[in-house]
Amino acid sequence: MSELLSRFDDWISDGGPSALVMKEYLEPAAGPGDVIFPPTFAPPEDNRDIGAGYIIDRDGESSTCLLDSVGSQANRLEPLFKTAKYHHLVPQFEILVNERKVNLLDAGHRAADALVRSTELATELETAFNECAAGDATRLARIAPTSLVFGAWDSRGSQVKVPRLIDSTVRASGVREIKRAAQYFSMLEKEEVEELLEVDTQKQRKPLSKAGFLDAPSGRTHGGVIVSGEIVRTTIVNLTALRALGAGSNDPAPLRRYILGLTLIAALAPVDFFLRQGCLLVRDLKKAPTSVIVYRDGNRRPAPIDNVEPFAIATADAFGVGPGREVQFDPKTAKDLLKKASKAKEES
Questions:
Q1: Torsions phi, psi of 260, nearest 5?
Q2: Helical spans, DSSP H, in 175-231
Q3: C-alpha span between 344 and 348 (Å, rounded)
Q4: I need a surface site. Which of 2, 238, 248, 280 has the fewest CB within 10 A?
Q5: 3-state secondary structure of 336
């Protein structure tokens, strides 16, 4: 066996480390102290009056704001494996929906997504999830290996949960929330609206404002945050969960090496941090990124990780990347899923 293939064998063997923890330090593209916009989340169902808002945790004078969640980071990273540089590392499945093609790597729930389960892959995936739960993840790795990297819950079928191996978030500390307001000015005068549209502007003010025919103030709303502390992207590679992947009666090492290679590509690939409108981040050159291997006894050792692409390519070749193909969305299978979901809701 080559030295390249066995490069991380200490990590995939019994008694290996618990996790690889990496931290990257970021700052607004316009520079430290510039306003950035976190995501807004719906309010709790039992308190809709408070409206949508940012996730900011406060403890005395300290505050921490969520800038990008685990799920959001996963959805940004998984499409890396569609790019010319990495597409050969995973099977490429495309679902045909009328004239449109949807890559499995874009499906929000991965191998468990309703779109994917509404194709001829449904039976294969049901079997793959059940085998994975029974200790053999080989079949799932042949069809949807990124479901082993980013996790999946087959809630519409086998109910099997596959834990994510990569857990990445972006958080900011020392945040101060600010507000903003706006005013839209119509290009038409009130008298012109009444004459040309033959309407009573007083009685129909709201629909006219909404349509853009009258002035419309937006009022005070979320205006982003200013960060006085650090913006940190923390990525945890769960090596304990990786070692739990089995290959049935076969040696699990080729499977684990392959999935680790994909995980390290996702964790280390250079990505743009355009998280949303108003939140473009870049690397903070004043603070070097760190990577640490963490052991179950709490020991932490620096683990500078680089040049993982040759490892990922070698492990993919050794494991054997499954063949991709085009599959057709089947309305009948989709309707059966809908009936099953409706029946489960009635029984609950």
A1: -65, -40
A2: 190-197, 205-211
A3: 6
A4: 2
A5: helix
Q: Which residues of 133-169 are buried (b: 16+ CB within 10 A; e: fewer)?
A: eeebbbbbbbbbbbbbbbbbbbebbbebebebbbbbb
Nearest to 32 by CA among 226, 171, 254: 226
pLDDT digits 0-9 by tens, 204-250: 888 888 888 887 776 667 789 999 999 999 999 999 999 999 999 99
Would you place residue 344 in the very low, low, confident or very high pLDDT band (cuts 50, 70, 90)? low
Q: 201-237 as b/e, with b when 16 or more CB fall inside 10 Å?
A: eeebbeebbeeebbebeeeeebebbbbeeebbbebbb
Rg of the chain on CA atoms, in Å? 25
What mean pLDDT value characterizes the chain? 90
Cα gap 301→20, rounded to integer Å:
10
> CA 171, CA 67: separation in Å to the nearest integer?
5
Strands 326-328 and 166-173: unpaired
157 pLDDT exceeds 90?
no
- Annotate 234-276 with DSSP letters as a single string: EEEEEHHHHHT--BTTS-SHHHHHHHHHHHHHHHHS---EEEE
What pTM was estimated for this model as a whole? Answer: 0.86
**C-beta atoms surrounding 249 within 10 Å:** 7
**Residue 170 and residue 233: Cα distance in Å, rounded?**
4
